[in-house]
Amino acid sequence: MAASEAPKIATGEPVALALGAGGARGLAQIGVIEALQARGLNIVAIAGSSSGALIGGVFAAGKLEEFRTRLSEMTRGEFLRLIVEPSFAQDGLVRGDRLVDAMREVVGDPLIESLEVDFVAVAVDLIRQREVWLRTGPLWQALRASFAFPGVLTPARVHGRDLVDGGLLAPLPIAATRMSDAHRLIAIDMHGWPVRPAGLPADVYVDVDAENESGQRSAVGRWITRHMDRVRGDDQGLAGMSLTEVLGRSVDTMQGQIARVQMALDPPELVIRIPRDACQFYEFWRGRELIEVGRREAEKALDAAGY
């Protein structure tokens, strides 16, 4: 049965959410969750990959409102000061400890098994080349593993395994929701049709404010500035993109295709799609704007489905 032909989800009926990977676009899923709750849908289970795991874990911990407030207040400079924490290891540019600590202050660090909402964070075991579903243990240990983007954040060591971003194999973790008691599934696809014409990059230029206490830009800050700024000029196509934009588009292409296959094999009752050009994958400081994008797209999907 196709998703569009599935029985309608009744108000108050238990539903599961599959929250997708998509870098900063994942923040739009805050607005999606708020829109679903406003329609009276009862979210009892969540599986998330990467930034989808982050949002799902925060919601399951009952701290989505506090997290939303903190995120909306965060400036670009503040975010970059949290993330520019160079790693001297060979398996990632930054450790991410400072960023995780800042989020932990808002959310706390409960055990996953103590959460009121059934929650699964999906990560990938690089050695065994398979998905890992994290259903127990410290919440932030699981989240850190699920959003450990390879080459950028160092892998997370969990139970003797080196784990990285769940979006590599499960950008839309539908299968991980099927262990819940919910009979209906809502999937948030982060690779929806772009708002801009195909091939036109988002008109965003980044001026990175990554300075150390002495006011001098660090070597890491200079590296980020050089690789996050798009090449200006008359060149078109890939020649006019920065390193990070090429990387982001490449990952999006891979994840979008995998997500489409996952939905074809196991159709959800409702799919809410976030435009894949809503932002660049590293623009986490645009939280307030992205939350509204998620709310708008969720309301459109719910209206179209008659909820």
SSE arrangement:
Blueprint: E1 14-19, H1 28-38, E2 42-49, H2 51-60, H3 64-73, H4 76-83, E3 92-94, H5 97-107, E4 118-125, E5 130-134, H6 139-146, E6 151-153, E7 156-158, E8 161-165, E9 184-192, H7 219-228, H8 243-265, E10 270-275, H9 287-305
Parallel strand pairs: 1-2, 1-9, 2-4, 3-6, 9-10
Antiparallel strand pairs: 4-5, 4-8, 7-8
Structure description:
With 307 residues, the chain is an alpha/beta fold. It is built from nine helices and ten strands. Helix 1 crosses helix 9. The protein is globular, with a radius of gyration of 19 Å.
Summed up, what is this model?
The protein has 307 residues and is an alpha/beta fold.
Q: Shape, please?
A: globular
Largest sheet: 8 strands, mixed
Distance between the termini: 19 Å
Tell me the structural class.
alpha/beta
Strand content: 15-25%
Mean pLDDT: 81
Number of distinct helices: 9
What sequence of helices (H) and strands (E) makes up the elements? Answer: EHEHHHEHEEHEEEEHHEH
Number of strand segments: 10
Residue runs with pLDDT of under 50 for 5 or more positions:
198-221, 230-236
Helix content: 25-40%
Q: How many whole angstroms does the radius of gyration measure?
A: 19 Å
